[in-house]
Design brief:
With 356 residues, the chain is mainly beta. The chain is built from 3 helices and 26 strands. The strands form 6 sheets. A 5-stranded mixed β-sheet has the order 1-23-22-21-20, covered by helices on one side.
Length: 356
């Protein structure tokens, strides 16, 4: 009989052994930020979502694109320094996909929800200058308040974008295509999640679309234009794995041969839930981002958007980088910002070091 058996007997006298069994597994394990970005330009609830662009030949030149939902976009380097700001409106969520052909040249396409004019803003990322260039006209969403956004690149090389409406849980899907040097969008699908939902991510390899319904379920849909309303519930708020409303941003760490992990911002508990990418997306565990005293970087709370890559980005991020929005950047009075965390530390504390 191990220590856990005796702990269970003691705890049972007070609260019951069944309740005890659920506690240790649900305690989020601590990791620490390696870097943080310059604060966003505007105060209060402003920073929200991010996307990571991996430079095709020099990982050290990779970028993080973050939204300031009161002003526009900020572009950061891997040290967190702001390189560019685009004051284009109340940009809420952002995503990026490579391989968008413009006049025969493959470019990275960036899209973001713009709540100033209820549209989708589109940009191309120039790999030489590492700057964003506005492309095409804003795409009207037809929503009263466009909210969440994520992109999908299917096996045929077609680019898509999903956008949610904040009021009623509706999602719409557009195909994005080049028309000369610009980009246009054709709406191909609409479906309802059920209630307010912002965080989403598409898996380009498997064709899955993951959506976090803020106060409800964590869902798996099909990302294809003909995916309809068919879905599978992976988890839910209050379902036993520690999800607490609101659940927010969703991101995928891509491993080999279809393996990997899905990260969900468990905003209501200041933590992050991890699920397997393969199979039935089984629950792995929870972690939180605490203070790094040596680097003088505060911990993270109330995260909205998350982004992750499994690509090695230098000595600090040998197995990839996780970027998380920080709802309370300390010391008090600073504007919100984004924190950078090494995936290697996350994998280590969750016992995933040899997986993926």
């Amino acid at each position: 009989m191990g220590i856990r058996y005796w702990q269970c007997l003691i705890f049972a006298a007070v609260a019951g052994c069944a309740q005890m069994n659920s506690l240790p597994e649900k305690a989020p394990l601590p990791v620490h930020p390696i870097a943080e970005t310059d604060p966003v330009a505007t105060p209060h609830d402003a920073a929200d979502d991010s996307a990571i662009w991996v430079h095709p030949t020099d990982p050290a030149k990779s970028l993080v694109i973050g939204t300031d939902k009161q002003r526009g976009l900020h572009v950061y380097d891997l040290d967190g320094r702001a390189l560019e700001t685009l004051p284009d409106g109340r940009l809420n969520n952002v995503d990026i996909r490579d391989g968008f052909l413009v006049n025969g040249r493959a470019m990275a396409l960036v899209s973001a929800t713009n709540r100033s004019n209820n549209s989708i803003a589109l940009y191309l990322l120039d790999p030489d200058s590492r700057r964003l260039v506005r492309v095409g006209n804003p795409v009207p969403t037809g929503f009263a308040d466009p909210y969440g956004l994520c992109m999908y690149l299917n096996p045929q090389g077609e680019h898509y974008v999903f956008v949610s409406n904040s009021d009623d849980g509706r999602f719409r899907q557009w195909r994005l295509r080049a028309d000369g040097a610009t980009a246009v969008a054709d709406r191909v699908r609409e479906f309802r999640v059920g209630s307010k939902a912002e965080g989403c991510v598409a898996d380009d390899e498997t064709g899955a679309l993951y959506i976090a319904e803020e106060g409800g379920g964590f869902w798996k849909y099909r990302a294809s234009a003909d995916g309809g309303n068919v879905r599978h519930q992976i988890d839910r708020v209050g379902g036993g794995n520690g999800l607490v409303a609101d659940i927010e941003g969703v991101a995928i760490w891509h491993g080999r041969k279809g393996r990997g992990f899905i990260v969900v911002s468990n905003q209501g508990a200041d933590s992050y839930a991890v699920y397997r990418r393969e199979g039935n997306n089984s629950f792995v565990g929870l972690f939180r981002v605490g203070d790094d005293v040596e680097r003088n970087i505060d911990g993270v709370s109330a995260t909205d958007g998350v982004a992750v890559t499994s690509q090695p980005l230098g000595p600090h991020y040998p197995d990839g980088l996780l970027v998380v929005q920080d709802g309370s950047n300390l010391p008090a009075g600073q504007h919100q910002n984004f924190k950078y965390v090494s995936w290697r530390e996350i994998a280590s504390v969750l016992g995933l070091a040899n997986e993926g």
